[in-house]
Amino acid sequence: MKNVLVIVPFPMGDEDLARRQAQMGAVDLGPGIEFHYRPVRIGPKNYSSQHDMALADFSILDAGLDAQAQGFDAVCIDTMSDSGMAMLRSVLDIPVIAPGRHSMLVAQMLGEKFSILMMWDRWKMLYTKTLGELGMEHKCASMRSIGVTPDNKALLSGKEDQVFPLLLDAARKCIDKDGAQVLILGSTTMHEAHDWLASRLDVPVINPGPLTYMLASVALDLGLTHSKATWPAPLAPKHAMIRAIGAAGATFLEDRA
Q: For 79-89, what is each residue's pLDDT tens digit?
């Protein structure tokens, strides 16, 4: 049995975590692999600024630091920002899969140009960073926002009648006006809209969270992981310090609750 850790990028309880776990309904990977969801214990309220991104990187590093020692065979990161991916790849030998870059790379398998659908403009910096790292700016036809502040816990629950038509209108503009041949949902928090949108559009729509599960499974089946030539191990690991900072941050949040 293969075990994969899915790191959810915000602290949350079981009810909110279940909305994230619902992404598993989009894929059937058979009986030989299990996915275990773990929220971070610290982190920003939302991913809306460079300040938030620094906290996001650390919170996901803290959550996944001991994944390999705990017996996990791979890690999936449940955010399109790919926060913490590079850091975890430097300290883990098991595959670490994040949805941002992989959604863009898979989009290139399916069409020439892709667009990214997003909830609000503040997320644009996340995709711009990844596009730059991949050298794929010219492959992105557009990024279109529907101007709705995201809810990283309730997701789209209760807002379907408002949000789904806005996403569909933005998607059609991406296709008809911008020339997109593939669409990417800009957040794993948008997964509840995937099937509704995909059934109404004539181009592929990538659901980033389930994509990472499939890619983790493929990596394990093929015996592949990231290159240590790209993500070298630290010369002086500070794992105990990282754990201590994470514990102190969690205590701080508990005291303020």
A: 999 999 999 99
